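**User:** Everyone, produce a chain:

**Assistant:**
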Amino acid sequence: MIRLLLALAMIVASFLTLEAARRGVAIMPLQVGQTPVTRYAKADADGPVVVVAHGFAGSQQMMQGYVLPLARAGYRVYVFEFLGHGRHPAPMSGDVNAIDGTTRLLVAQTNAVVDALAAEESVALIGHSMATDILVRVAAEREDIGPVALISAFSKAIDATTPETLLLIAGAWEPGLRSFAGDALRMVDARAMEGDTVTNGPVTRRAVVAPFTEHVSVLQSRVGRGEALVWLDRAYSRDSAVTTLPTGWAILGLLFGLVLSFGSVAKLLPAQERPQMVLTAKQFAIALLIPAALTPLIAVPLNPEILPVLVADYLGLHLFIFGLIQLALLWFWRVKAGWFSLVALAMLLLWCVLFGVALDRYAANFWPTPQRLWIIAVMMLGAVPYMMADSILTTDAGFLRRLAIRISFLASLGIAVVLDFEGLFFLIMIAPVLVLFYLVFGTMGRAAAVRAGPLSSGLALGLVLAWALGVSFPLFQA
């Protein structure tokens, strides 16, 4: 009961904080061609236009940490989704390694968005990671670009004069990008240090660090968001008295509260009588090492490359083979998983939907466009057997064994990357998504499996894993 009350308190406090960050801001979806755009502004806003762009595998929602304080300060803020990302229906295309390939297409897309939103005054630009390179190139081509704020920047298009008014924000745990920001600052003044603001003629530049953050959490840094607001205020001679709320902690509190509360909800499930599934040390080692080693050796040569999502088809095949080997071993050892529970399946799926609704509203896109539905369906063919095996193995396992089970799959993906680095490099970016999935949905799934058996949890988590992977990575058409 204490744990449930604590979870509910976290959910309520976090929800109130996140809604307070949106209070007074009118949020209106727009369309520029096929590009989804959302306008954030107060009803009487007359401030400058700010165009905001996300990073690779990002979405509009991921940029709300920067968007909402600016909107509350009176700016008219527009955030859009790049080709293939979030709810954009059209895929990315071109050569991702060539400036004249994918980069040029994204620059053209951004120019089209700015053209559609441009006012008589200059337009400010804010972007994260991949978008930093795109926005620098846009700024170099146009005369109507005002202050620019780049988060986790790496663009080689930055030089001593472009962009003219530039703020660089890097996370404290991004050493390479912090170093890049410092180098960009010293293009203007060779003696400049992190935290300085330097000028040289019309060029003004500043580089700051967001403490205790890495490449994703930097988007919720109160220091970074405050710096961006001050930077735009200085450029436009404005004075904004806006409190930057701790939305990052609120997002974590809301999502953690939902996971924590499910432990209490799962106890309402009728307990299923079944023998505990405990493998010997030898069996456990075989169940982890054999699929981890064999799967990449089988899957890499068979890589089908049929889905219009980067490395999704390979990942689906890897999941399928890995899970199939583990299920075959469990069948050979006559491991009994118990009966299937429709109630447990429905309860777990309902809670996953609640989690998805919260995630989509405050943190990252979780709902697919129609173009992604068949991709999710194909991913299920691999995700369901994998999660079935994972659920059977982890339900009665201790913490260290559960950790080893998940590490074995991640290591197997690592072997695949080594075998085909150029073709499967983007699998490295999937690892954080899988770790988050294990921590969130894996935790909820095990709570249900302990009460009602692993079969229903395995099926539910397989469906959710396919969904999560299907909406997380960009559509891509070569």
User: Anything to note?
Assistant: The chain has 15 helices and eleven strands.
